Amino acid sequence: MNNNFTVTDPILFSLLLLACLLLLLPNCTSVSSESRINSEPEIEIIVKPRLKEIEIANIGIYYFNSSSRYGNLGSILAKHVRMHLQTLQLMRGVELAGSYNDEDEDPIEIAQQKGYNLILLGYIHEFFYGGLIGDSRVDISMRIIDVQTKATLSYVRGEIDAPYVQSTDCLFFRVKTQEPLPPDVLSVKLIEKLVNVLMNKDIQPIPSDHYIELF
Fold first, then answer.
1. Burial of 136 (0-12, 13-18, 19+ CB in 10 A)
2. Which of 80, 122, 81, 115 lies closest to 99 in space, CA to CA?
3. d(Cα 130, Cα 161) in Å, to the nearest integer?
């Protein structure tokens, strides 16, 4: 009787294959939901907040300006800002001022007619959904202007990214992919942070389900 084992032996082959897999597994990465939400907003303060007596002020929030490819996103983000400012309860009045045309309309003149003391202008620099090709990214800026003096009282810009995740599943010899968070979800987190910095307030973020109807 031949008691010699060779690699053609089914049992031995299976054991060798299992050993190889165990050696490879520590080097494999897995797709984790945490990797999709661990991005924190990066904030740049362009003009440090110098807001005084804002508790008696009425502020008008204009729809965010951007290229036409973003559709009605400007009004959605403005509503989001208004909701967060109302929650902070820092000013007497917080209203939406609508849209304006950069080329032939002066937002300050419109604000004077409507009785605002302050206005908030926002701009969408980037609002990208990566899908299965890359990371999602949101980049927006906001500033507050004194209607009477036309001075910029606070000016901030921020961006946030969510990674597109790809990893190898060594056990089943396949590549796993997971799409990044969509930019509308990212914008919730970014705007809350931007508004807090804009108003020079360190406030805990509001749960994102408060804004679910905006998008």
1. buried
2. 122
3. 10
CA distance 146 to 54: 11
Q: Following DSSP, what letter does each residue of 107-151 receive, concatenated?
A: HHHHHHHHT-SEEEEEEEEEEE--TTTS-EEEEEEEEEEETTT--
Residue 53's pLDDT band (cuts 50, 70, 90): confident
**Cβ-contact 136, 160 below 8 angstroms:** no
Q: What pLDDT is recorded for position 111?
A: 94
pLDDT in tens, 179-211: 667 777 888 889 999 999 999 886 444 444 443
Give the position of tokens 């508004």. Answer: 195
Give all strands of the β-sheet with 118-128 in edge-to-edge order: 42-47, 152-162, 136-146, 118-128, 58-62, 93-98
